[in-house]
């Protein structure tokens, strides 16, 4: 199936090919009544993949919060990882976020059997995680505080420890332009849906445990999550999912929620 940017409606390949076939049949029948010296009719051109209409502006440079986010070189990214509306493969309630760790996609389920699909980067081997949670807090240009386990492996990060105040938000901050903080049973899972300037990591498993999106995409997702939102992280999108009582833990990327984050609902 063709996938289109957010302003368009998906068009199936079957429909396009069916239309082309009808046109061809009509022209062949007409050819039966022509004189021998009339040139044969031209066959219609084969349908082509739809252009990335709108993606240049969707992933163009952004001025946000006093920071200049650079454009994403979309020509260097597999088109399947660009933001688009698709048929919902999850079967979840509208408003639910589903992260497909197999396909490296994040789905925001919409009414009418559709979903907005974003490409994501995930944790490398040994840092994968899965489970059910809710978006309890969110923040623009979040502070980053590496957890003690990460500092133990990378002592150079000690300057950003909780005791030292963390890393202020900015273009080089690992949480990017936005962060959505995942909680389960009222407790911080220490996992995040967050932005990243590393567009070339989308579609890969290279990060230290969280779900990263391109900054342009996390800004879009952030604005579509106005309230406490359920999140399912699974490798079985399209299959029945069972609520998990805990996360399958890898290693978290963050040590806590900044004090000025926005609370989206009471803790369970």
Summarize the structure.
The protein is an alpha+beta fold.
What does this molecule look like?
The protein has 268 residues and is an alpha+beta fold. Helix content is 14%, strand content 26%. It has one domain (75-263): Beta Barrel (L,D-transpeptidase catalytic domain-like), CATH 2.40.440. The protein has 4 helices and 14 strands. The strands form 3 sheets. Strands 3, 4, 5, 6, 8, 9, 10, 12, 13 and 14 form a 10-stranded mixed beta sheet that branches. The protein is globular and about 50 Å long. The protein starts with 12 loop residues before the first helix and ends in a 5-residue tail after the last strand.
Helix content: 10-25%
Number of strands: 14
The rounded Rg comes to 23 Å
H-E order = HHEEEEEEEEHEEEEHEE
CATH class: Mainly Beta
CATH topology: L,D-transpeptidase catalytic domain-like
Q: How far apart are the first and last residues' alpha carbons, in Å?
A: 40 Å
| CATH homologous superfamily identity | L,D-transpeptidase catalytic domain-like
Mean pLDDT: 78
Reported for the largest beta sheet, the result is: 10 strands, mixed
Number of domains: 1
Binned strand content: 25-35%
Given the C-alpha coordinates, what overall shape results?
globular
How many helices in DSSP terms?
A: 4
């Amino acid at each position: 199936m063709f996938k289109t940017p957010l302003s368009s409606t998906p068009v199936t390949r079957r429909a396009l090919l069916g239309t082309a076939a009808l046109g061809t049949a009509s022209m062949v029948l007409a050819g039966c009544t022509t004189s021998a010296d009339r040139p044969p009719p031209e066959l219609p051109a084969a349908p082509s993949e739809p252009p990335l209409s709108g993606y240049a502006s969707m992933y163009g440079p952004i001025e946000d919060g006093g920071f200049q986010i650079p454009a994403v070189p979309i020509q260097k990214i597999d088109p399947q990882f660009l933001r688009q509306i698709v048929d919902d493969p999850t079967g979840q309630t509208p408003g639910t976020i589903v992260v497909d760790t197999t396909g490296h996609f994040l789905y925001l389920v919409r009414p009418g059997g559709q979903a907005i699909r974003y490409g994501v980067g995930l944790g490398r081997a040994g840092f994968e995680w899965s489970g059910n949670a809710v978006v309890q807090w969110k923040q623009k240009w979040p502070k980053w505080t590496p957890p003690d386990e990460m500092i133990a492996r990378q002592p150079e990060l000690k300057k950003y420890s909780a005791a030292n105040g963390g890393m202020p938000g900015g273009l080089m901050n690992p949480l990017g332009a936005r962060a959505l903080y995942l909680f389960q049973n009222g407790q911080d899972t220490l996992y995040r849906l967050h932005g990243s300037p590393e567009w070339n990591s989308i579609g890969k498993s290279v990060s230290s445990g969280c779900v990263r999106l391109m900054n342009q995409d996390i800004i879009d997702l952030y604005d579509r999550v106005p309230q406490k939102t359920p999140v399912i992280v699974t490798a079985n999108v399209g299959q029945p999912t069972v609520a998990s009582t805990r996360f399958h833990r890898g290693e978290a990327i963050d040590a806590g929620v900044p004090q000025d984050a926005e609370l989206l609902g009471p803790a369970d």
